[in-house]
User: Fold these one by one.
Assistant:
Number 1:
Amino acid sequence: MRRGFTLVEIMIVVAIIALLAAIAIPNLLRARITANDSAAQATLRTISTALETYAAANNGLYPTDEGQLTGATPPYLNQPYNGNTVQGYVYTVSSAAAGYTATAKCMTPGVTCSKTNYVITTGGVLTHTD
């Protein structure tokens, strides 16, 4: 007597694996998008904290460029964000002596991030736009 799997048994196993993949993959993609959105908000809060800390140490004046944050000893920010893409978001930081605005713009909505763009302004006020 030969031992092994029949074609029907193999087809059933493949169908079950396909069904599990069809259920799991969308959930994983949704989790990735949520994680990227949370990371964008956290990054903007980090940028805001760096700007506010700089202003506290410099008589209430904010830096005029990001190099003042990354080039200080010790640095207020460990890496530059202005113009860089991190986890599907492009960051823009504009700062003047009186205040700042930092934005995180979603590059591929629905793929790596939600359709939401985030903005943080002077004082650490975080808002979102759709």
Note: The longest strand covers residues 89-96.
Number 2:
Amino acid sequence: MKLFKAIVVGGMIAGALDITYAFIVYGPLTYKLAPEAVLQSVASGWLGEKAASAGGALTALLGSGTHLILATVMAAVFVLSATKISALKRNPVMWGLIYGLGLYLVMTYVVLPLSAAHRSQNFAADLQDVAARLQVSFSSVRPKNRWLLLGTLFTHMVLVGVPISLINKRLT
């Protein structure tokens, strides 16, 4: 029961912190997106950008649910790993930061390229594209906006990885 509680609480807190950051940064600070549009951008991973933005509140709800499920899966991976690797509990801030960096890399270079938001109509070509991207050195990747890259790293490391790790230490 303690593991389940750590997973759910960790996922919900990390998900809430992450989406709040997105509402602020992609809202008033940069692109002036409404929270509904931010949530629709999450749903675009399932539906594609056009369908998600045309879906109104229903696709925003899908985006919200998807976001919280993803955050809970992220928490589950950490909490269950910590049952096998006791070092993960000894320094939760350090391991949370490292885990958050890993989450950023997986989301950016695996999950997003395979999502419908970035997918062409040719799945085989998409898989080849992902394989090619994974072989590219990270130093050659030039983000369109370095501040948004730093913010995304901060979010994954500080607002997702660290809370999950701290909650795991406290509740398990």
Note: Residues 136-143 have pLDDT under 50 and may be disordered.
Number 3:
Amino acid sequence: MSQFSLMVRESPPTQVIDLNGYLDAHTAPQLESAFQDLVNEQRYNIIVNFRDLVYISSAGLGVFMAFIEDVRNNNGDIKLAGMSPKVYNVFDLLGFPMLYEIYEDEQQARQKFIDSHSIG
């Protein structure tokens, strides 16, 4: 069984999902559930912090695609932060940097949400 955990926490004006370990077909349903809970609660400013994620599979990547449309249709976004080069390469190979904003760290992503809200 793959070692994986996630934690959802509030960091106004965002919700942060911290990922840890291996995100694969066995563990992707946990992330899917976390996203679904946020959408159900109408929390659409989401940062996913990859700082402690070691591995991501195509099943893990699919979770992001499953929710981005719902989130953006509600004037929100999913911003990605803190990826290791290994994890970033997987996202890059599949063209995710054209679909998602990817930041060095969570604070940069959070600041982007703050800036976009103060303008709008």
Note: Residues 4-111 form a domain with the Transcription Regulator spoIIAA fold (CATH 3.30.750.24).
